[in-house]
């Protein structure tokens, strides 16, 4: 009757009667004691109708507020409700929170401070670090916080409603004091910890056979074995837990972004640090091990997803400053809370955490995230190496300033004028491009290089350190760098990578084993190196380009004194192509030349080597073409939105339905991203870009698909070729790489036999421990050769784009 009447012009007699007679009190008692789900549903609809009418000022009525909260509290505890009814109840609470945000004057109806005195102190209550539970003061808030961990509509409405309440704290001093005194910060921090604890302690990041990317199928990837006790990253159950945890983590971030109360924000951050970071996350780092086959993989993967999801500067600074054991610049001048309540809470936390830290045998000053990453990068477990490299990429790319001086050892330099010449750049580009063509042929190189140039331009422009380098001279900008509590990040200036940097040494060691590394390790490795070289302030001399002091110019017979114009003479000198001794070659170039020699040895021993490599490149290229064709919508069919929500994403807006098409935060996931069953992409660092760019179909030895039916035929052709690749006895032959201890020379040997039986695997591993002995199938090595060519092209593109974008070479 009320809903029907609301569509008619005033007067609304039924609505007036409902308000005057307070019929909602009877409805509350009847529905709450009925133990009938249908009755509860009808009561929710009635309350919604009264609130939506926006007449009679129901939300300003104390009796209405008490009856509604009593109804919800008793209904939820006395009967098991269906998910749809529970979502309707939380949506109702969300609507009230939204009204409070827009109409702060109605807050006293829903929030009372009867238990607090005029100064915000709780009467006859001792406020310890956990805070005081006062559900009767603000039952709406506690109902919402009980639901923030849920998935779907329930969690979205609860998180958004609680977000509005925290936003309202900046407009109400009593609410601000109440939040600081209450156990709300404790509940939020422990709730996050509880969700993290649900994630598996042992994790496997190996791809399941179903839907495995083509690049992994054409390798020895299937020979890798996971710990049977480890949970798969790709299982639906694990992904569900991960999504829930990351959603709650991003909710934390949004609360801090929307809350304008300094005391509330600092209280939340301090509880996050003590109850989640120090007492839960850091012990996981200390206790992780590479020996149990999964705990190091798990904590490295979780840290990567956490740091990838977070953008809030205070949260990021607090996490990385602690885990990387960076100097605490805020210790000298701490920001004191403005209220006595917040100061007492901080003192309680310090008492809770201080003595424990002193007694602890482990702290970040003794073992921190840098130690875990470095020891994991040198692990013999490929999964551990992959997880460490992916975390390193996130740190270098998204949180670059914190990685400098901790994860990456650098030395600052004071000169900013370029010393490298354009002639040296051209010589270096020719050297790298010649290596790329030599290792895997010339087919598709032009298209691939053009694709990499565009990709590197985008990466360099979006790097946090590029803002200042690309700004106009008159602009006053500061690049992201070391954190300073007083003035924000310290500016990152020009710097060199020191030759003894442990991380870079680990990367070089992995690069030297490129041909026998598992494919996913190589994809992660190349991405990390490219991320390292994307900082505009990092000089490339010594590791990627030749130091100008090592240039040597052969006598060209030119009389430079004959030039009448000094500028013309200087331009000519700068354009000369220098040579350099092998000892002066940058480290990466030396590694690539060693790999080039190994491939040359393979080419000399294996018949039709170049044809095998070209065939593999064609397989990847055409598989990607079909993949693109199947993803592209036909003109008569609009594209369908994805039905799978990215892990841990939620948008702070009024939710109408479960969100499934939101844009994921942070970087796109690579091979560890769950994909719908579809043809797998060709090899690239992220596994989702063609290995040769987008070459024209005219280059293909197979006919281009003409219609949907032909696409199916082409897919069948490629699957047939894939089957031939995998069943070829010749491609199963093992290649052994032996580097005796203390020697840089690598012996390449082709075995005439198939892989040894599984029972002999342990004996082979023991033998490999003595010297650096590695084996892989020919199938596997050819795939890695194709990846290597793409990586060399990426390095050349990085050199060229940096020189142009940042003016790194001189022309005079």
TrEMBL record:
Belongs to the FHIP family. PANTHER family: FHIP FAMILY PROTEIN CG3558, RAI16 PROTEIN-RELATED. This is FHF complex subunit HOOK-interacting protein C-terminal domain-containing protein. It comes from the Eukaryota. Pfam families: DUF5917, RAI16-like. It comes from Karstenula rhodostoma CBS 690.94. InterPro entries: FHIP (IPR019384), FHIP_C (IPR045669). Residues 628-710 are annotated as: Disordered. Residues 500-618 form the FHF complex subunit HOOK-interacting protein C-terminal domain. Residues 666-676 have a biased composition (Basic and acidic residues).
């Amino acid at each position: 009757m009320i809903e029907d009447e609301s569509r008619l012009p005033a007067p609304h007699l039924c609505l007036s009667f409902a308000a005057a007679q307070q019929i909602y009190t009877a409805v509350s008692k009847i529905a709450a004691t009925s133990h009938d789900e249908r009755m509860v549903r009808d009561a929710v609809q009635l309350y919604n109708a009264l609130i939506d009418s926006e007449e009679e000022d129901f939300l300003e009525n104390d009796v209405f507020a008490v009856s509604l909260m009593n109804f919800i509290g008793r209904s939820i505890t006395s009967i098991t409700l269906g998910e749809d009814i529970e979502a309707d109840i939380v949506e109702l609470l969300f609507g009230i929170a939204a009204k409070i945000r827009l109409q702060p004057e109605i807050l006293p109806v829903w929030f009372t401070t009867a238990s607090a005195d005029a100064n915000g102190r709780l009467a006859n209550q001792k406020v310890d670090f956990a805070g005081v539970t006062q559900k009767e003061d603000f039952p709406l808030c506690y109902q919402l916080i009980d639901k923030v961990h849920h998935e779907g509509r329930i969690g979205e409405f609860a998180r958004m409603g609680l977000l509005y309440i925290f936003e309202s704290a900046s407009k109400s001093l009593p609410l601000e004091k109440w939040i600081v005194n209450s156990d709300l910060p404790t509940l939020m921090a422990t709730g996050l910890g509880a969700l993290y604890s649900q994630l598996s302690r042992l994790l496997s990041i190996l791809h399941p056979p179903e839907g495995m990317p083509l690049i992994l199928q054409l390798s020895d990837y299937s020979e890798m074995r996971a710990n049977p006790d480890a949970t798969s990253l790709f299982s639906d159950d694990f992904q569900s837990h991960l999504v829930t945890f990351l959603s709650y983590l991003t909710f934390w971030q949004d609360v801090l972004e929307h809350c304008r109360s300094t005391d509330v924000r600092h209280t939340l951050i301090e509880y996050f640090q003590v109850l989640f970071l120090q007492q839960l996350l850091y012990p996981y780092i200390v206790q992780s091990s590479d020996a149990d086959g999964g705990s190091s993989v798990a904590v490295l993967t979780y840290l990567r997803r956490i740091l990838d999801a977070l953008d809030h500067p205070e949260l990021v600074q607090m996490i990385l400053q602690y885990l990387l054991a960076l100097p605490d610049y805020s210790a000298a001048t701490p920001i004191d809370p403005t209220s006595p309540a917040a100061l007492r809470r901080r003192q309680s936390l310090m008492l809770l955490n201080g003595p424990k830290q002193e007694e602890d045998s482990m702290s970040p000053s003794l073992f921190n995230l840098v130690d875990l990453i470095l020891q994991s990068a040198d692990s013999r477990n490929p999964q551990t190496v992959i997880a460490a490299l992916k975390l390193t990429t996130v740190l270098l790319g998204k949180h670059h300033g914190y990685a400098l001086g901790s994860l990456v050892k650098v030395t600052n330099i004071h000169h900013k004028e370029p010393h490298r010449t354009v002639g040296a750049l051209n010589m270096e580009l020719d050297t790298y491009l010649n290596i790329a063509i030599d290792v895997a042929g010339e087919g598709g190189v032009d298209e691939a290089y053009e694709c990499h140039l565009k990709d590197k331009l985008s990466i360099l422009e979006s790097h946090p350190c590029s803002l200042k380098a690309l700004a106009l001279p008159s602009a006053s900008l500061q690049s992201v760098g070391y954190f300073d509590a007083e003035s924000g990040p310290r500016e990152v200036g020009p710097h060199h990578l020191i030759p003894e940097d442990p991380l870079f040494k680990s990367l070089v060691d992995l690069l030297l084993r490129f041909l026998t590394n598992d494919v996913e390790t190589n994809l992660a490795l190349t991405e990390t190196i490219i991320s390292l070289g994307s900082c505009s302030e990092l000089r490339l001399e010594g590791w990627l380009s030749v130091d100008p002091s090592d240039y040597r110019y052969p006598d060209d017979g030119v009389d430079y004194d004959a030039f009448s114009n000094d500028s013309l003479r200087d331009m000519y000198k700068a354009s000369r192509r220098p040579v350099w001794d092998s000892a002066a070659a940058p480290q990466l170039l030396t590694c690539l030349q060693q790999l080039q020699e190994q491939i040359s040895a393979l080419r000399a021993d294996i018949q039709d080597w170049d044809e095998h490599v070209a065939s593999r490149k064609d397989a990847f290229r055409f598989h990607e073409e079909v993949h693109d064709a199947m993803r592209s919508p036909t003109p008569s069919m609009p594209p369908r939105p994805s039905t799978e929500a990215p892990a841990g994403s939620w948008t702070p807006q009024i939710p109408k339905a479960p969100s499934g098409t939101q844009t994921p935060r942070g970087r796109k996931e690579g091979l560890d991203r769950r994909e719908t069953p579809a043809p797998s992409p060709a090899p690239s660092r992220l596994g989702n870009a063609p290995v040769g760019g987008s070459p024209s179909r005219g280059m293909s030895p197979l006919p281009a698909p003409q219609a949907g039916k032909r696409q199916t035929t082409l897919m069948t052709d490629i699957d047939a070729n894939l089957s031939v690749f995998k069943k070829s006895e010749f491609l199963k032959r093992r290649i052994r790489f032996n580097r005796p201890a203390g020697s840089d020379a690598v012996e390449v040997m082709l075995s005439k036999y198939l892989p040894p039986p599984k029972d002999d695997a342990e004996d082979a591993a023991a033998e490999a421990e003595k010297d650096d002995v590695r084996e892989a199938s020919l199938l596997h090595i050819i795939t890695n050769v194709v990846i290597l060519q793409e990586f060399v092209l990426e390095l050349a593109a990085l050199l060229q784009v940096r020189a142009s974008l940042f003016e790194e070479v001189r022309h005079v």
